[in-house]
Automatic annotation (TrEMBL):
It is an enzyme of class 3 (hydrolase). Its main location: membrane. It comes from the Bacteria. It catalyses: 3',3'-c-di-GMP + H2O = 5'-phosphoguanylyl(3'->5')guanosine + H(+). Keywords: c-di-GMP, Cell membrane, Hydrolase, Membrane, Transmembrane, Transmembrane helix. It is found in: Cell membrane. This is cyclic-guanylate-specific phosphodiesterase. InterPro entries: CSS-motif_dom, Cyclic-di-GMP_PDE-like, EAL_dom, EAL_sf. It is a multi-pass membrane protein. Its EC number is 3.1.4.52. One of its GO terms (cellular component) is plasma membrane. GO terms for molecular function: cyclic-guanylate-specific phosphodiesterase activity. Residues 253-503 form the EAL domain.
Length: 505
């Protein structure tokens, strides 16, 4: 993870954006989800209550059916009939002259326009009226039925306020709806709606007659908004952070690839050399060339950071060619023991160049002039294909030594090793680290060494840090040792001094 994070550095603005974006997304998502849920719930409540109203109106129809059949002197029967009908304020009977019977007041004599303009009594319809003769100032829903032949009719009065007050809402806290208004033909119930500043949604009955207006409670919205915000924030935070980091990492890798390209042109790369020691006599028989990058802004950049980017960005070939040239320059005036070897790390991709043979002949001949033999360490991060095997074989025929580097960590299997044309096998540090431990991997080390001997490979152990490791490897006839126990990778000037010192003994 540290390595991942260290592959880019963010400005405080970018970090700020990475932290603010999840909050913004989470708030937007929570707002949309809460709105969706609150609206859905409010519609559910509205529809449910419209259905209740429809039922009341359907019952009104049957009350009207009963009432319309009563004779003018049967007012008492009407009171009896309406006794156990709780949602209804009462029923009024009328003829062409007046309203003459009320289920609550008995015989009455009220003008026909006591509830509505007279002509409206001609319709069989529903209305909201601001008051009734029985309860002045208290609105009601009325349902009219009239026999056009006899001119007699009945009006069922439904308790309007009771209906709205008993408006059923889900058992939630806080309440979903802070205000409810029933509307019909321009009249409302209550007569003067008392809406606050909450959002109002309308739910229309299926027959488009009644409409219910619901004012959503702000508390309910806030309550669920903060719940969704609490849940979505960590998720948004993780998603935005990861995608932001991946985006920036990609951008960074792109710009780093550009920097590698210009770094090669500006000769920002240089080599350090780590001696390789012969296990038998303790003498240095060569060095491994390891690239370093002095980036103009970032300072010294580690190869395990930029090599994979160079490999991804198809820059490893020009970089390796640059390294060869750089080593030739470094060693041009060096005096070394005959047969001294310089090992280079070469990615399999390098062998895809058209003029690969002439490039290696040039390297071989230039080094041979100063008594040095090149050794190519093939890094096995990528799969070694049969084509690459072919190239390895051609290299060996040119007299160039070939090693497989970091054996056991990449894609090369033990069985593949049996068919591979090789001179050296370099055992990875992770196997050397197991020396002295009774682990499964420590047995793998012995197997690799045994197999290498059988295949007549020269065995090199890398990452040797302790005398115990060196002794163990020497006892197992490992030919060459490389590691901090002997020397760390060093700049050319230090190597020159080290070699002088080393060969004195
Ligand atoms: N294609 C190329 N790859 C290259 C080149 N130069 C380096 N590399 C690859 O980068 C990786 C890291 O390399 P580096 O940081 O240089 O580390 C090397 C040694 O310093 C380190 N080492 C050697 N001895 C010890 C030790 O005793 N302890 C310890 N902790 N580290 C040690 O090991 C690295 C050598 O690795 P290898 O090449 O596998 O022998 C690394 O994968 C390099 O291959 C390049 O020019 N081209």
């Amino acid at each position: 993870m540290r390595r991942f994070i260290s592959t880019f550095s963010l400005t405080s603005k970018q970090w700020g954006l990475l932290l603010l974006l999840p909050i913004f997304f989470s708030m937007s998502i929570s707002y949309v989800i809460t709105s969706y849920i609150v609206h859905g719930k409010a519609r559910e409540v509205g529809n449910f209550n419209l259905e209740r109203l429809e039922e009341l109106l359907a019952q009104s129809e049957s009350i009207n059916q009963f009432a319309i059949t009563l004779k003018e002197g049967d007012c008492g029967k009407l009171s009896e009939y309406m006794r156990f009908k709780p949602y209804y304020r009462g029923v009024i009977l009328f003829n062409e002259k007046a309203m003459y019977c009320s289920s609550t007041a008995g015989d009455i004599d009220l003008p026909l326009n006591s509830l509505l303009p007279e002509n409206k009594l001609a319709d069989s319809a529903h209305y909201i009226v601001p008051e009734t003769p029985a309860r002045s100032g208290v609105p009601a829903i009325i349902s009219i039925s009239k026999n056009v032949e006899t001119h007699r009719g009945s009006i069922v009065v439904i308790e309007g306020e009771y209906f709205v007050d008993a408006f059923i809402q889900p058992e939630v806290f806080p309440r979903l709806v802070s205000n409810v208004v029933l509307g019909l033909h321009g009249a409302t119930l209550p007569s003067v709606p008392n809406f606050g500043d909450g959002e109002i949604i309308s739910v229309l009955a299926d027959d488009k007659e009644f409409v219910i207006l619901l004012e959503l409670s702000r508390e309910f919205f806030r309550h669920f908004f903060w719940i969704y915000f609490g849940v979505s924030l960590p998720i948004c935070f993780i998603i935005v952070l990861l995608s932001g980091l991946l985006f920036l990492r990609k951008k960074y890798r792109h710009s780093l690839a550009d920097d590698i390209r210009s770094g090669i042109e500006n000769e920002e790369f240089f080599l350090v050399y780590q001696p390789v020691i012969c296990a038998e006599d303790g003498k240095s028989k060569g060095v491994e060339a390891l690239v370093r990058w002095q980036h103009p802004q970032m300072g010294l950049v580690r190869p395990d950071l930029f090599i994979p980017i160079a490999e991804e960005g198809k820059l490893i070939v020009p970089l390796t060619n640059y390294i060869f040239e750089r080593a030739l320059k470094d060693f041009a005036d060096m005096k070394v023991e005959p047969g001294f070897r310089i090992a280079f790390n070469v990615a399999p991709e390098h062998f895809t160049q058209d003029d690969i043979e002439s490039k290696f002949i040039h390297l071989r001949d230039s080094l041979e002039r100063i008594g040095v033999k090149p050794l190519i360490e093939i890094t096995e991060r990528q799969l070694l294909t049969p084509d690459i095997f072919q190239c390895i074989e051609s290299l060996r025929q040119l007299g160039i030594l070939v090693a497989i580097d970091g054996f056991g960590t990449g894609q090369t299997t033990l069985s593949l090793l049996q068919t591979m044309p090789l001179d050296y096998l370099k055992i990875d540090k992770c196997f050397i680290d197991t020396i002295g431990q009774d682990s499964v991997t420590s047995h793998v080390l012995d197997t690799i060494i045994e197999l290498s001997h059988k295949m007549n490979y020269v065995v090199v152990a890398e990452g040797v840090e302790t005398q115990e490791q060196a002794d163990y490897l020497t006892s197992r006839q490992v030919h060459f040792l490389q590691g901090y126990l002997f020397a760390k990778p060093m700049k050319l000037a230090d190597l020159k001094l080290w070699l002088v010192e080393h060969f004195k003994h």
